[in-house]
Amino acid sequence: MLGPSPPQMTEPEIEAAGSNAEGSINPVRLAAGLISASIIILALYYGRDILIPLAVASLIGFALNPPITWLTKRGLPRVLSISLVMAVVLALISVFGILLATQIRSLAAEFPTYQSTISKKLTDLREEIGAPGVFARLLQTVERVRKEVTEPEQRPAEAAPPPPQKVEVVGQSATPIEQAMLWLGRAAKPLATASIILVFVFLVLLDRSDLRDRFLRLLGRDVHRSTDSMQEAGGRVSRYLLMQLLVNVSYGVPMGLGLWLIGVPGALLWGTVAAVMRFVPYIGPLISAVFPIVLAFAIDDGWSMVIWTVALIVTLEIISNNVVEPILYGSSTGLSAISLIAAAMFWTAIWGPMGLILSTPITVCLLVLGRNVPQLQFLDVLLGSTPVLDLPSRIYQRLIAGDVDEAIDIAQKEIADGSVIAFYDETALQVLRQASEQHLRRATAEHRLRLASGMDTLLEELRLDHPAELTAAGGRVVCLGGKWEIDALAAEMVAHALCLEGVAAKALPAATVNAHYVANLELEGTETVCLSYFSENPAMQARHLATRLRLRWPDLKIVIAAWNAPEELLHDKALPRLHADAVVTSLQEAVSRIHRLVDPEEALTAQQAGAPENETERVDALHKSGVLDSKHREMFDAVSKRAADVFDTAVAVISAIDDETEHFVGQSGKLPESVTDETGHVRPIPREEAICNYVVANGTTLVVPDIERDPRFADNELIREWGVRFYAGTPLRTPDGLVFGALCILDEKPRSIEPHEMALLESMAADIVSEVTGAEQSEGRAPAGPKAVATGGQRVPE
């Protein structure tokens, strides 16, 4: 008997189910995207007569806006500023045009004199090529084969008919008026396009604010994201054009001077052509190099001028590509090489030669939109040069694909810029976290085998490349994997990291919770055991194993490394229930905690912040600067209030550290009464107990996402009184390199901070030093922070 038929799903339900299905692609959305892309491409192609002038005008507007803004800030009306800048540009173009026309006329008058030299060289080349030599017999053989294949077999035939007579129709010659009209018709379209571009440039510069508002509205209702997109796109394109102009001038001027010294006629012309043609990607430099080489071939009876000209061009290309461009553009390109080439081909096919010139600026704008507009994020994936997968995901993918060698190469490159412990903590543990999350979701048995064997090879390679030299005294540490094989892999990393820190440690295979396993463990002489777990709730397993270990070895210290532990396991109240001495969540915390358990005095000494090399000079300059005087208190409090508001933190302070004490010269936010005096100001604290002491000692920004998880500060009673969990401090550094103290933001909850936010905090710290010492900072701002690291392509300034 048949059961009831399943309920039918409506079309909206089917579409929703398709979009929500894991790993599925919505066919309706895909079809809509393809149709939209086709319509856009057709509109770009058929609307090129209108869009090209608009694009060129916008590009020129980006280039001319900085001087116009500079003049406007000096009190000149914007209309007058635009007219003045455009008049200067047109005058310069006219002057260069007259000079180039003079050069062309001179070359045209002298060119007939070069005909004899060209004929003689061609004759000599023909004779040298035709002379018997090594390839003569080969050429004869090829020619004989060609004749046998292509020429028909000769037959004794009838007399060939006479060839047909050529008839030529000679038309009536055009009158001067008709020739003039023909030339005018050919020049009408370029002149009309240039006039339209000129009008568009003026309007774009005049109505810049209104156009910006309209673009912001088109980009969506998120004003913050749209504003960032507009500013980034405008800044990147403007800097790109300026840097491109400087690169081209730095190439064209030496080119002209070099050709003049060599003796090539029209050196000014060819230097200008070389500078202008470099605006055309890829083929521009090649085209500009042809003319001087051909001219040197035509005028010189020998070959020395040609050789010197070629050597000059090659030398300038090498210097420009490898020295000038990296200095002016910086180390980041922003766009991948393949995206630039593909974009150049696409825009050339759509808009012709002008599309090739505009391809890079347009691609930069599309990249910025892809980074800031979620719906266009695919543009960032397609065009950007930054890796689309983070480092742990890249290594994880290589391992499950069986490409262990590439995974090792990626790891070694990362370690070369940092350390093995940092790689284990920030990358390798993330790889194992992904493995634990995907273990029963998408990973197959083959994937799990490849990951386990690949990680074994990777860790073995790192142990060989970075052997541990045990110099610290202390008891042995045993690291055990709690349950899975990935737990044991993490235990191996902890053991290697401890050995690198001078603590003798070894790793054992994954444990099983039974008496037989514990009875067979050889822990004689071991002081500490680290149990590794990736389980999201390892409390029961860890408690059972810790209990059995305690029964067998009562004096054993147990540290539970709960890599994915819930918040309730991280409090001190959970330690008695787990029968453990400490619970850690990161490898760096595990190393620090275990080091303190094994050798407390040595670990405490190693984790103390030292004094900078210029300590005496720094303290003297601090007292002379007036930072500790109360006259700056109001200003420091205002800056602290602004920092707390900008970064949305509970507390912000400005501290200054002398030889023995940390003084809080500015503060904002509600602080416990136990740390303040009767006036509400934070009491000074000993220098050795201050977090900011690490900022002063190292002279770099310090970020502590969770103070309770950092052994350097978790046991500090004075810091606990503050009731804060997050700390970020940047040094107050003078132009002489002396660090007076730090600008700090603190919060009641653990949190993270983005690189651009750190750059903003450093900028505010620079403003404080500038205000107190009178030292000028560059426009009162620090650098905007690092951008994405590039991998190739035409350089685009950040």
Structure, described:
The protein is an alpha/beta fold and 798 residues long. The protein folds into 5 domains: 33-117 and 192-206, no CATH class; 222-383; 386-467, Methionine synthase domain (Methyltransferase, Methionine Synthase (B12-binding Domains), Chain A, domain 1, Orthogonal Bundle); 472-607, Rossmann fold; 615-780, Beta-Lactamase, CATH 3.30.450.40. 61% of the residues lie in helices and 8% in strands. It is built from 31 helices and 11 strands. The longest helix has 40 residues, at 223-262. The chain is globular. It starts with 10 loop residues before the first helix and ends in a 25-residue tail after the last helix. Mean pLDDT is 79; it is low at 1-23 and 777-798. Keywords: Membrane, Transmembrane, Transmembrane helix.
